[in-house]
Amino acid sequence: MAQVLVVADDLTGSNATGALFARRGLRAVTVGDPAQVPRYADRVDVLVVNTASRHLPGEDGYAAVRAVADAADAVSLVVKRVDTTLRGNPGRELDAVIDSLTTRHPGGPVKVLAVPAFPDAGRTTVGGLHLVDGVPLNRTAVARDPFDPVRHSRVAAVLGEQSALTVREIPLDVVEDGPEAVATALRAPAEVLVCDATGNEHLRTVAVAAARVAAEDGVRWVSLDSGPFGAALATELGIRPTGSTPPRVLAVVGSATDHTREQLARTETTLGARYVPLDPADPAPSPERIVRELCAASDTGALVLGVRVAPGAVHDPAAATRILRCLSQVAALAVPRLRPGGLYVSGGDVAAAVTSALGADGFAIASEVLPLAVAGHLVGGPHDGLYFATKGGLIGGPDATVACLEHLRALCTRRTAAWPSGDGRRSGTPRFDPVPHPAHQRKEASS
Hints:
Layout: E1 4-8, H1 11-22, E2 28-31, H2 37-40, E3 46-50, H3 58-71, E4 77-81, H4 90-104, E5 110-115, E6 123-126, E7 129-132, E8 135-136, H5 155-160, E9 167-170, H6 172-176, H7 179-186, E10 192-195, H8 200-217, E11 220-225, H9 228-236, E12 249-253, H10 258-271, E13 274-278, H11 287-299, E14 304-309, H12 317-338, E15 342-346, H13 348-357, E16 362-370, E17 373-379, E18 387-391, H14 400-414, H15 438-446
Helix pairs in contact: 3-4, 7-8, 8-9, 8-10, 10-14, 11-12, 12-13
């Protein structure tokens, strides 16, 4: 059964948003007719419906979205996908979603989280104003769009032209104060909360806070966003691929450069990663201690776990050798205990040492996540088939490690997924994996 309904107003936006959910391992499909909603609702995790309503008059857009929202039932999250520049009928179509939910499920509190920022695409929200590459909307080309000119930069003003829902803005300084501060702000008496965000870490902060408010106050959230926030909110609400357990990823990071520290900080704020530090000055680091701490972090529910070298210069070759040996021993002990679905290793020497410590013959390359960062799986040895990704310590921008970890998580959750056939039976094609997982193939062959 579909857990997420995404209602979008054009095809490219529909597919792009579906891809963001698929990146998190959820099965997503886009359809363009409300009549298809019942047919696919029990076959996917995320049902994306393109109403093609961006250029319609407001009332026609309302009717199109209302038909879709009424046709979908029992989903955990409704996302009203809006254009990254707020063109179209965002306010009136939001009304349609709210009216449908309150009519079919009366009594429960329904509130809207409007987080239109798409930082990776240069769309940010600051002080309630939506910006494209730092320029307010009403100073960009969308203000002169021949079909849907956007006359306001303030998100609340764009919505207010079409909707009477009450709006409150949550500024960036509150978001940067963390989930507790945001959760307090989300409890304000308003129907729509517009949240500032300039980075992916802000999206996760708001999502964590919203999940907390949902659990504690019973609020049902509707997300009004351009794609990435809805996917982040689904994760924090606990939405997972049907029939699977959340995948765990283990990271072994040997680099201690400022570049690596920034990348790891992004994984902490974006993915909730937990790292155990390895002191480079410790003359006798204990792999057992590190693995015990990793297991303890796993017991708290952390899904991205890792060991990293703590800040500190390493000039002594003997110390570098000691660190490398400890990291490889941690991997050899942690993999059989934690049974991660994927293993991420940063640094060429570390990757070679870890591969050897795990008894693998080599590495089967499946794809390039980004330049000089590849993913695939181990071949040979007791962990044959374990998904594996490697990246140079100085490679990529601030979100490079996030991209590698998310790629691994998607591979893990797709491992045994298959699309149901039209008659309701499970079908093995098309498979999700770019390279079939050897361990899974052996399991199928023996069953």
